[in-house]
Design brief:
The protein is α+β, with helices and mostly antiparallel strands. The chain has six helices and ten strands.
C-alpha cells in the first residue's frame, strides 16, 4: 500500500471575496465596498472577505462574510471563480481566493452593521481604486451578472418585493449596459406571465404613477416545468 506524505508540500492560504450588488431607490446599481482598517493598504477600498477555516467550506465562509457585513441571511449568491495568480495578495503568504457575487435589496440590509465595518455603497460606474486584484473580480462579476440576468430572473433579487415596470427596466438597463426599448421590454416581461399586478401605484416619479407588481415564484416554477425560458434581449 502506497502512502502519500504531504509534510513537504508548501502550504497556501484560502480566502473568499464577495462582490455584493444592490439596487437603490434612486435607480442606481451599486457595489458594497469596505474601507480597509489594516495593513497592507490600510484606508483603501476593498471587497469584503475572509480566510477559510480548515473545518469550513468556502460557500459557508462566504455566507458568514455576507451575514457579518449586511446582517442578512439567505442571500442570492453564486461562485464566480478561483483567483490563483502568484503575488495577487501583497501579504507575505500565498493566498488563493474563491470569489462569489451576491445580490441584495439595499433597503433590507442592516445599515448599522455596514457602518460599523466601514462599508459603503458605490454606483458601479464610480468605483474607487481597489486593492489587490479586486477590480478584476468586480469586472468578471459584472460580466457574469449580465449573462445571468438575460437568462434567469435573478434581477428580481435586487428589487423590493413590490416594484414597477419602469423600475424593473431601469435595473435591466444598468445590468445590460444598454437602453432597452420601453414598449418591447414591458410587453416581453408581462407576456411571460411571471408578474402579479397589485392594486397600488407608485407616484414618486410621475403624477400618473405606475402600478406595482410582484414576482410570482410559484408561477415561474410552474412554467419552468413546462420548458419555459426566461429571456431578456
Amino acid at each position: 500500500m502506497i502512502q502519500t506524505n504531504y509534510s513537504e508540500a508548501k502550504k497556501m492560504l484560502v480566502a473568499v471575496d464577495c462582490i455584493v450588488f444592490g439596487f437603490d431607490q434612486d435607480r442606481k446599481l451599486k457595489l458594497l465596498l469596505v474601507n480597509r482598517d489594516r495593513e497592507p493598504h490600510k484606508g483603501k477600498w476593498s471587497l469584503m472577505g475572509g480566510f477559510v477555516d480548515p473545518e469550513n467550506e468556502t460557500e459557508a465562509t462566504a455566507n458568514e462574510v455576507l451575514r457579518k457585513f449586511t446582517g442578512l441571511d439567505e442571500i442570492y449568491m453564486e461562485q464566480l471563480r478561483a483567483f490563483t495568480e502568484v503575488g495577487r495578495d501583497t501579504d507575505t503568504e500565498r493566498v488563493i481566493s474563491i470569489a462569489y457575487f451576491a445580490l441584495i435589496n439595499i433597503a433590507e440590509h442592516d445599515k448599522k452593521i455596514s457602518k460599523e465595518f466601514g462599508a459603503e455603497w458605490f454606483p458601479v460606474g464610480e468605483i474607487p481604486p481597489l486593492i489587490f486584484d479586486h477590480d478584476v473580480m468586480v469586472k468578471e462579476a459584472k460580466r457574469r451578472l449580465k449573462v445571468r440576468a438575460m437568462t434567469k430572473p435573478i434581477g428580481f433579487k435586487l428589487l423590493p418585493k413590490k416594484f414597477t415596470i419602469p423600475q424593473l427596466k431601469s435595473l435591466y438597463d444598468l445590468i445590460l449596459e444598454t437602453d432597452l426599448d420601453k414598449r418591447n421590454f414591458s410587453r416581453r416581461i408581462l407576456d411571460m406571465g411571471v408578474l402579479r399586478k397589485l392594486d397600488e401605484k407608485e407616484k414618486h416619479f410621475s403624477k400618473k404613477g405606475a402600478f406595482y407588481y410582484e414576482f410570482d415564484d410559484d408561477k415561474y416554477n410552474e412554467l419552468l416545468e413546462r420548458g419555459f425560458n426566461f429571456v431578456i434581449k
